[in-house]
What we know:
This protein is mainly beta. It is about 5% helix and about 45% strand. The model is unreliable at about 1-20 (pLDDT under 50).
Amino acid sequence: MTHFTHYCPLFFALIVLTSPTVQLADEPPYITTKMPVTLLSANDGETDVLWRTTPEGLIDYHVKTKDSFTVIRLGSDHPPVSKTIYGTVPCSIAGTPTMAMSFDGRFGLITNHGSRPEAWGPLAYTESQPLANADIQEGDLARQELAPPLSDMLSMIDLASPEFRVADRVLFEDHPVHVLAHPDRNHFVVGASRFFYVFRVEDGELIEVSRSLHDKGYPCFWINPTGDRIIATQGDWRIANEPTSIHWYSFGPDRIAHLSKVKVLEGTDTRLTPDSYILRISPDGTKALVCGNSSSGSGDLCDIPIVDLTKNPPVINRVIKQVGDGVESFAFHPNGKMAVANCLSKFNNSIAVLDLGADPPRVLYHLDAGGIGQGIEFTPEGDKLFVGSAFANRIEVFDVIGDFDLRKKPMFLKTGHGHCSLTIGPTWSARSE
């Protein structure tokens, strides 16, 4: 005991100095980035029902919070500048935790759909505003205060306006799940339950370029860096145990065409589950990571199947085993070696740090993160990692040290209630026009 007491001050000093959450003395007392960037967080008020109960201990199915979005400006010489707007843009956590921003940072695009999984139960809405497409009257789309939670809608936000006004809205006859900016910098792709849509922006309005019919189910998709191919996980996640499949498409502004189904190569120790949904293509376009299971609670540590995009047709021929109890989303570091995965859980969420340069690819370690992890993005320079949490209503920040070392910062960025997707892009400037 005497020996321990003698070294106790030094022992705790070392803990403080080496703790990954300690703010270093020469750093500013706020979060900075090397270049100006904008974070766009979509926030789903329906996430209330994931943890709120009645006084009797039952699930409270009444939705009491409006959907919102949060815009956060970061730079090298100022504290974060943040603003959350409630009730102008609907969004749903039932989908994929990534949306779209124009390459100049001028516009942000967010989808919403009226489809809900069976497991969510009988949601009850108390808002007096329109609830679904059928409730929207002539002239409503021109209003700013319009966020029908069960609408099938694409909203475009003008990130150059001080109030972040909604510049345009489009209604769909099917369920739009996901939107991404195309690498050609001129188009946006929307994946919906029956069609893939292509849009462009003209004079601040969304113009539909094409729609391509498919019969594969609700898509989560990613576009390869050259812009000529799309990979999509598809199925009907509204129905328990409905099979999921992966598909490979060609892209042209006038038509998105199905090429092949992506299969698991015989002898590869993995499989797709009904909850295999979210995926992402690496920046070099050679591979895609797939969530082996995007829902938690099973008790199993699910896989990350890896699609080899250099093959024709692409095939799942590698796997990272037992990564987490539900994997939700991915981000790739610019160094080409490190990727991170959100391991989904309400209270003990974590992120897994992956070594993609190893043969075979492997998990290096896990770090604590806020519950129900959703959006996850690196800065373009790779010096910071942002991880959104629906449970904590925040974006947590990690410093990147070297190739694989992440250090969680003590400060974080607040979002509106129920963070459900995260998009990162440049901060718009009039000089960029």
